[in-house]
Design a protein that fits this description.
heterodimer, A: 263 residues, alpha/beta, Glutaconate Coenzyme A-transferase, four-stranded mixed beta sheet, globular, B: 299 residues, eight-stranded mixed beta sheet
Chain lengths: 263, 299
């Protein structure tokens, strides 16, 4: 096998892209460079029918490069339709026509619930974060939820959220179906590993370690007891040279995705 | 006060802002760094409005200006930030120190509350927010109920009444017909429909005949609009698609300045508060050079 040189942002994008297919109908919110790159990469490789609404507005957009905002018109070029948020976007989301959404949080718990609201007590916060925006809504509406985090550490992967801004698998088990909500989180991709959610308990479970990362490192970086797979722990599949070429040259030539990583 | 249709509705910016009373509830159009009526917001700051409740579904700079200007008692919102360029500094500080109340929802819960107000129904049901802590913040306005037939849970969103909606658009005629080019994509219609009074700032006034020639492009009819203010670059530093982009330089410089109170004060006075007119404000942003940098297309 040919050795390929890649960076961690590229591995994360490629891993997410491979989770999407021709049935994926996705959109994106703010500061979502990693999933935006993944939707575009999937569409330019194995999933040409994938639907992506840039900023949740510009359907089938095909920007030559990404701007510094994933919520602005800087990524709308080439769209077949500019949809309206209240009339079209929220109708497609609630109608489950859109089926895929990726979000992240300042905190993530074992059931894939996220916090983007406050650190510390709600009424006397240590840090007042931006707020959940559409997270509380879309977590309830979209069946295939993907989580990502460019920094896997125990401050982000916590035992208990300070505030639940968006629902993943809720309290675990059947909680989502009891609330009448479709699907739930599928994968969580970080800079250290890939995790899925154990059927039944819905607890977060290690799926593969990125090359060079060991289990103890992931355990130490996770603030809750991470479930382990039944079989052997595998290594995350490496990016192919062609995937890297398309990502670097066609999807994100100005490397806006690096804005999600600490300087 | 959707007024007499025969009267011309063009106002100067001072007169339009005077329609906003101290203590009233205003709602701001646009989303994040897009299509926000920033020039109108700046005029509210200049007029020293007090005790406003500000509905801003997903916003950043406008709310930060109003807080820096001392105009705000309460923010009603789903998200306030400068996206990847950081947290809105004055908003963050005001909420952390309790100087400003925050009535927090999610994006769709706010849309549902505005729709309940606009349609005069006691509540709008939705699945949005179920199972999150957002629902527990305001049980008097967004509460979990169970359908009596199926037993299925839903969130009942009660009306959110708005006194004045402030939105920015591309074009209007003198009667108050408005159009957004190429079409309205954000939630401005939800606040216009929920509001008693609507003020629209526009990039330009065009002849009434242009609306008659292409009536399918009209976004708001004249009876929904109370005042039109012509302010080219009136959404700056947010964008006005497809004419100009948001000004990244402004957001970044503002965020940097906010790290130091003295430096912020200087920036705030020079770049935001002191310019005596919108033309002088744009000059303070770098004038023609800035305009050329953010312009997308000629129209």
């Amino acid at each position: 096998m040919n050795r390929v040189d890649y960076s961690i942002d590229e591995l994360m994008v490629v891993t997410l892209a491979r989770a999407f297919d021709n049935t994926t109908r996705a959109f994106n919110g703010a500061v979502s460079f990693i999933p935006v790159c993944a939707y575009l990469l999937a569409r330019k490789t194995h999933a040409p029918e994938l639907v992506w609404a840039a900023s949740s507005i510009a359907i089938d957009a095909d920007p030559a490069r990404l701007g510094e905002s994933t919520l602005s018109d800087s990524i709308w070029d080439g769209a077949a339709m500019l949809s309206s948020s209240p009339f079209e976007f929220w109708a497609y989301a609630q109608g489950r026509r859109y089926n895929t959404f990726a979000f992240r949080g300042a905190q993530i718990d074992r059931f894939g619930n996220v916090n983007n609201t406050v650190i510390g007590p709600y009424d006397t916060p240590k840090v007042r974060l931006p707020g959940g925006g559409g997270m509380a809504d879309l977590g309830c509406m979209i069946p295939r939820i993907y989580l990502w985090s460019t920094t896997h550490n125990p401050r982000i992967f916590v035992e208990k959220l300070d505030f639940r801004s968006g629902i993943g698998w809720g309290d675990g088990g059947n909680h989502r179906s009891e609330l009448g909500l479709p699907g739930g989180p599928q994968l969580c991709v970080t800079n250290l590993c890939v995790m899925d959610f154990q059927p039944g308990s819905r607890g977060m479970r290690l799926r593969s370690l990125h090359p060079g990362v060991d289990l103890e490192q992931v355990r130490a970086a996770t603030g809750f007891e991470l479930l382990l797979p039944d079989g052997e722990i595998t290594i995350t599949d490496l990016p192919l040279a062609e995937e890297l070429r398309i990502l670097r040259d066609e999807v994100d030539p100005t490397s806006m995705r690096l804005r999600e990583f600490p300087a | 006060m959707h007024g007499c249709p025969e009267l011309k509705k063009i106002e100067n910016i001072e007169a339009a802002a005077a329609l906003v009373a101290d203590g009233s509830t205003i709602a701001l159009g646009g989303l994040s760094m897009n299509s926000t009526p920033m020039a109108m917001v700046r005029e509210l700051v200049r007029q020293g409005k007090k005790d406003l409740s500000v509905v801003a579904i997903v916003n950043g700079m406008a709310v930060d200006w109003l807080i820096a200007g001392g105009c705000v008692r309460r923010v009603i919102s789903g998200l306030i930030s400068f996206e990847g360029m950081g947290l809105a500094p004055n908003f963050r500080h005001a909420v952390e120190t309790g100087r400003c109340e925050l009535e927090e929802y999610s994006e769709y819960l706010l849309i549902a509350r505005l729709r309940a107000a606009a349609t005069h129904v006691p509540f709008i049901p939705t699945k949005a927010g179920l199972g999150t802590d957002v629902i527990d913040l305001h049980p008097d306005t967004t509460r979990v109920e169970y359908d009596p037939v199926t037993g299925e849970p839903y969130v009942a969103c009660t009306p959110l009444k708005v006194d004045v909606a402030l939105v920015h658009a591309n074009e209007a005629d003198s009667r108050g017909n408005v159009r957004v080019n190429p079409k309205l994509v954000w939630m401005d219609n939800e606040i216009v429909n929920a509001a008693q009074t609507t003020i629209v700032s526009v990039e330009r006034i065009i002849p009434h005949g242009d609306f008659l020639a292409e009536p399918h492009r009209t976004t708001y009819p004249r009876f929904m609009v109370d005042a039109i203010v012509e302010i080219p670059w009136g959404a700056y530093p947010s964008s006005c698609f497809p004419e100009y982009r948001h000004d990244r330089e402004f957001y970044e410089t503002y965020s940097l300045a906010a790290a130091d109170p003295g430096q912020f004060r200087e920036f705030w006075m020079e770049r935001v508060k002191e310019p005596a007119s919108h033309v002088e404000f744009m000059r303070a942003q770098g004038g023609a050079g800035t305009v050329l940098r953010i312009r997308r297309t000629s129209t």
